[in-house]
Amino acid sequence: MAGTDPIAEAEAGGDADALFVLTAALLTPARFPSVLGDDYPAACATLGLQPYAEGYGLVFGQDGLGARWTVVVDDVSLVAVAISSWDCGMAYDLSPDESSVVAGLPGWPLAVRSRAPGVPAPHDPAPEEGDPSPLVPPSGKEWGPAQRRLGADEVALQWAAWRARVSDDDPAPAGPAVPGSEAGPAASGGGSSSGVRRALDELRGYLEDPPPVGRVRSAPGADAGTRILRADGPGWSFVARADDMAFILLDELPREVLPVTRGPRLPALLESLDAMAVRPS
């Protein structure tokens, strides 16, 4: 599928080979939609891709019939420039060249709230023989690994607000992770304590036996000079500011965020994790 300017819907409407680009994401070792997996190879496997070090760009759009498509391209720089422009409020016509297209996958793995003008409402394309099942975003009504990772991403994005909920002297549970959740504050006790200990033990294990690439990631924080750490493992997600404290989310405690204040051991762990983490180039 070739990229098509969404303004030209009058010309391309009804054309199943056109693509109206709605948004995009990067799929690289240091930056990938965590909904797809705990690490970069796992995220690639979800989409049936090889985990090449250079990574991919994911372009989400609709064809001229309104069908949802995720187009995978190998022109990572082009997609990165488009995302940076959009983040700055600038217009950018993302139109990948056909030669850069690696795969066209039906559906969207993420919730895309916009829609292309002049075409039918977003829907999955009619399946053809041999086509994979359409990609679908995770349900907001359930709780599992994908929702847990998305919750951790939200904590990382809104770090200052979550940090303000916790006192270093009396660390109270931080409350629900998923916006709109009806869940109450996390209950202290054996389940949360054992889950936090397990996650921290497995994180320390990463320092001895490095996990798959992308399992531990470090990105610039909102404040100058700060860095936000993200890590995942079986049943848990970890968010921390490298010079501060951490939060942990667990599969076993739906929609709850558990604070881990610095104490005597956390600073060294955060420093070591930040040193080994992959970083956006």
Helix content: 25-40%
Overall number of domains:
2
Structural class: alpha+beta
Instruction: State the helix count.
Output: 7
Q: Could you give the distance between the termini?
A: 28 Å
Provide the spatial order of strands within the biggest beta sheet.
6-11-10-9-8-7
Averaged pLDDT = 87
Strand portion: 15-25%
The stretches of 5 or more residues where confidence is low (pLDDT under 50) are 1-12, 179-188
Beta strand count:
11
Succession of helices and strands: EHEHEEHEHHEHEEEEEH
Assembly state of the chains shown: single chain
- Rg over CA atoms, rounded to whole Å, is 20 Å
Largest sheet: 6 strands, antiparallel
Spatial shape:
elongated
How are the secondary structure elements laid out?
Elements: E1 2-4, H1 9-12, E2 18-27, H2 40-46, E3 56-62, E4 68-73, H3 76-87, E5 101-106, H4 145-157, H5 159-163, E6 175-176, H6 190-208, E7 216-220, E8 227-233, E9 236-241, E10 246-250, E11 256-260, H7 266-276
Parallel strand pairs: 1-2
Antiparallel strand pairs: 2-3, 3-4, 4-5, 6-11, 7-8, 8-9, 9-10, 10-11
Helix pairs in contact: 6-7
Region (Disordered): 115-146, 166-195
Organism: Streptomyces zaomyceticus
Protein name: Integral membrane protein
